[in-house]
Each structure stands twice: as C-alpha cells, then as structure tokens.
Amino acid sequence: MFQVFKKLDWFFKHYWKRYTFAIISLVIASAIGLIPPRLIGYAIDQIQYETLTSQLLTIIIVGYIVLIIVHYSISFLWDYTLFSGAVILERWTRTKLIDHFLKMTPTFYGKYKTGDLMARSTNDLKAIAQTAGFGVLTLVDSTTFMFMLIAVMGFTISWKLTLAALIPLPLMAIIMNKYGSAIHARFTEAQAAFGNMNNEVLESIRGIRVIRAFVQEKQDKKRFEDMTEDVYQKNISVAKIDAMFEPTMKILVGLSYTIGLGYGTLLVFQNVISLGDLVSFNVYLGMLIWPMFAVGELINVLQRGNASLDRVNETVNYKADVQNPEKPISVGYVDAIHFDQVSFSYPGTKMNQLKQINLRIKKGQTIGVVGKTGSGKTTLFKLLLRQYPGVQGTINISDVNIDSISLEETRSWIGYVPQDQVMFSKSVRENIQFGKSDATDDEIFRVMELAHFLEDIKQLPQGLDTKVGESGVTLSGGQKQRVALARAFIKNPEILILDDSLSAVDGKTESKIIEHLRSERRNKTTFIAAHRLSAVTHADHIIVLEDGKIAEEGTHEELLKNGAWYKEQYEQQQLDDEEVIS
C-alpha cells in the first residue's frame, strides 16, 4: 500500500523542506488541538468540587481563545504548504508526460490510444496529486495524531479505559486492508474503461462527417451508450467498495464509544477517574473518529494513487524506439543524401516494406517518388524523418550516418507536408507561423502566394485571423493542403518533403505551385511523392517504387523512353485529363 510513496520519493526528496515543514506544522497543530479537551475536563472538575473562581474561568477562556488562534494560524500554514506541493507534483508530472509524448515515435501511438493517454494525463494525475496532498495528511493523522491521542488518553486519564476502547482497532485494520486491495483492482479497471470511452468520443468527433454520410448516428450513439454503461458499472463497483468504508468505520467507532462510555462510567463510580476525566476522554474519543476514518481514507487514496501512478509510469517508462546517439556528430550543412542498400520492415511485420534502396541525391536536386499505392513512398520519407528503428543499410547526410546525428538537428533541416494535413485549432496565421514563430505578415503573405492561397484568404471572413476549427474543419481539403504547404515554405528548410500533398488541388493550381517551387527551391533539396505524375515531371531525378524496390529511375524523358509503368501511367493520366477538359 505504501509503495506509492516509495515511487514518489524523487519528488519528496526534491521538496523535502516543504514537506518537512508541512508535517511538523501539522503535528504541532494536532498537539495544540489536544489541549482544549483537558481544559474542559479541568473546568468541569473545578465546577464539581466548587473551586471554580471567576479569575480561573477567565484564564481558561482566554487560554482557549489563544489556542484557537494559534491552531488556526499553524493549520493554515501546513494546509497551504502541503496542498500546494501536490499541485506542483501534478504540474511536474503533466509536463513530464507531454515532454515524453513529444519524443515518442509512431510505434508508441500505435500501442496507446489517444483517449487512454488523455485519461492518464487528467484523471490519473489528479489521483496522484491527491496522494501527495490528502494522502500525506491522512498518513500523519492516522499515525502520529492517533498515537498522540492514545498517549494523552492513556497517560493523563486511564490506560485501562484507553485500551478497552481501542479493542476494535485490529479488526478495523484487517477489514481496511481487504477493502484497499479491492479498490486498487477495481479503480485500475475503471480508469482503463474511462480511457477507452475518451478514445471513442475523439473518434466520433473526428469522424462526424463520415458518420453522417453513412447515416450511422444511431449506431454510434448506441456504441457510446454501451461504453458509458461499461464505465458506469466499473465506477459503481469502485463506489460500492468506497461506500463500505464509512459504515464500517462508524460501526467500529460506535463500538469504541460504547466501550468507552460504559467502562468509563464504571471507573467514575469506582473513583478511579473523575467526571471531568470521563468528559475529556469522550471528547478525545470523538477526536479519534477522524484518525480512524483517516485509516480508511488513507488506504483508499493510496490505492487509487498507486493504480494511477502505475499507469502513468508505464507510459513515461516506455522507451522511444529511436534514440539520440550518445555522442552525436554535428553536421554544419546539408549536402548529398545517400541511401545505401536500405531495407526496412515495420515493427511487428516480417515482410520488408523497402528492399535494397540505393539512391544518391545531390544538394539542390528535386527528387520525384512515384509508384502504386503501398509501394513504399511514405515509408521512404519516414526513414529520413527517423521515425522508426531497425533500418538495414545506411542513410548518410553529408557523408555522415544519419544515426550519428542528433534527432533535433536532423529534423531541423526538414520541412514535411504529409498526406493527412494537421491543422491546429487556431487562426490561419498561427498555423502558418508554426513553421516560423516570429514570421511577419509580409512573410506569411509571400508564402501564401507560393502556395497559391492568396485568393482563398480574401474569401475567409477574418482573413489571417480566421479560426480554422478543430483539425481545420472550416477549410476544404485543398485549402488545408495549401496552408500546410505555406507552413513548410515559411520554414525554408534545407530538405522539403511533399508526401502527396498536392492531391487535393486542381491541375492548374498544382502547376503554379510547382512553378513557384522551382524558383524558390534552388540550391535546396526537395522530395515530391505523387500519384499524379504531372507533379514530378520537372524533377531532376524520378524513382518508381514497386513492392518496396526501385523499379525504374531517371528523368521524365528517360522514363518515357523506357516504355514501362511510368510511361503507361503518364499517358493514361494525360488521356484522362483530356477527357475531363473535353
């Protein structure tokens, strides 16, 4: 149960001063809280023996008020210090998680669903923060404060009465331990179900157009209801155990009260203790209710925190498939890129998606990459972006193995426009500035001209300040592609990769963008993957991929002379274009 504190020892060691101060203040406040019941008992005894004077009563009242003020002040200090530490832990862990997410490769996101990662970043972090705040409070109260109360009750009143009243405690410990184990298992299941529900909601929102197009609203609603019912049932199972804590505690505390009151009355009749002692004892017994409850709450909070921490640690401890080299080699400039006998298969597959790729690209060249769907075009680019491990052969940049260069340096050279454009829920300006954070409006308008987006921006209601909506929902497919192109252009990267990123624009717009590319990308390397061959006819070198191999390569004219797949495809597309025009 207390393993969660051991797992968080890195945090407690870093903030040991904060937690030491909070715990000491909590203990002092608890000790001060033990004095008023003795004052009450003393006052009752003075009344019983008729020795209470007005001066003595004034001293008792003033002392009581002073104790309340001091107790309140110290309680404020420990409360603020302790719970602000819990907030710091939550912030640290959330920052650690997002930093980890940014380093992860596609394999990680294939294993963990987005909804589950969101659940770990929200609900689980709240449970961990509660452990570092409320968990520490209940730990101190269920141990130190309880022992202080028992010691005061035993030493100042009667050990016989104290031990008799505490008979239910061992039984409580056994029951609470069983409850704690059940809470841990059920809470873990509930959190996993919540993550799955999150993922279902995300998929429904992202795919709302498809759902409506296929008239699947009722079916999707039914799927969601089934999933929420599963989450509900799992949380109900947690709540059932949770609900058993308080009644169990009340029964055991009530039993302690019965023993204390019955046996205490007998001791008063036997003149072993005074009436004031019995009143004080019962006040202390009432104060002991919270530490007893704290035992149950402690087990509950620690088991929840432990389950959540295990889930978060599982995520954070996942090692990235592609690591930075221990001693990275810095490459001052991007020159030739050389693929030498490169083969690759995705993790979990046995068949190679790329087979013995040999390709040498000189600085400033434009490389066209074409082929059938699934031939390996995108896979080739992913290796250049270093998204996957297990590459056979070597990829060299400026005669340095790409694995010897830091990931940050490699990716800083590359501007990547993928097949599926990612738009952030911000303005058009902010989406383009993602490629260059300090870009001015003049620079933005210039790259929008290169991406042939100037006319479109005039049609948008607020121009550059128009919000594109969730995943760019307010933009058409062609507009999203051109904003993504502008974002890559403004970075002005040494290596530009266009992965079928002109597919949603018409032929006229495509030719203008290609023309702008040719004039702007002189002396810089460009890769263009496309199904429409008109996008690569100007390329310095074109490779045709088939089943992961280079089946043909050369210039546009050379490939036409070969009379193979490239020529057939090009002529077919030319005929299709003529039919459309006619």
Draw up the topology in text:
Elements: H1 3-7, H2 9-14, H3 16-33, H4 35-48, H5 54-103, H6 106-111, H7 114-121, H8 123-156, H9 159-165, H10 169-206, H11 208-213, H12 217-269, H13 275-287, H14 289-316, E1 337-344, E2 354-361, E3 366-371, H15 377-384, E4 392-397, E5 400-401, H16 407-412, E6 414-417, H17 428-433, H18 441-450, H19 454-459, H20 477-491, E7 495-499, H21 507-520, E8 525-529, E9 541-546, E10 549-554, H22 556-562, H23 565-581
Parallel strand pairs: 3-8, 3-9, 6-7, 7-8
Antiparallel strand pairs: 1-2, 1-4, 4-5, 9-10
Helix pairs in contact: 3-5, 3-8, 4-5, 4-13, 5-8, 7-10, 8-9, 8-14, 9-12, 10-12, 10-14, 12-13, 12-14, 18-20, 22-23
Structure description:
By secondary structure, this protein is an alpha/beta fold. Helix content is 64%, strand content 10%. The chain has helices spanning 3-7, 9-14, 16-33, 35-48, 54-103, 106-111, 114-121, 123-156, 159-165, 169-206, 208-213, 217-269, 275-287, 289-316, 377-384, 407-412, 428-433, 441-450, 454-459, 477-491, 507-520, 556-562, 565-581; strands at residues 337-344, 354-361, 366-371, 392-397, 400-401, 414-417, 495-499, 525-529, 541-546, 549-554. The N and C termini lie far apart (77 Å). The model has no long low-confidence stretch (mean pLDDT 86).
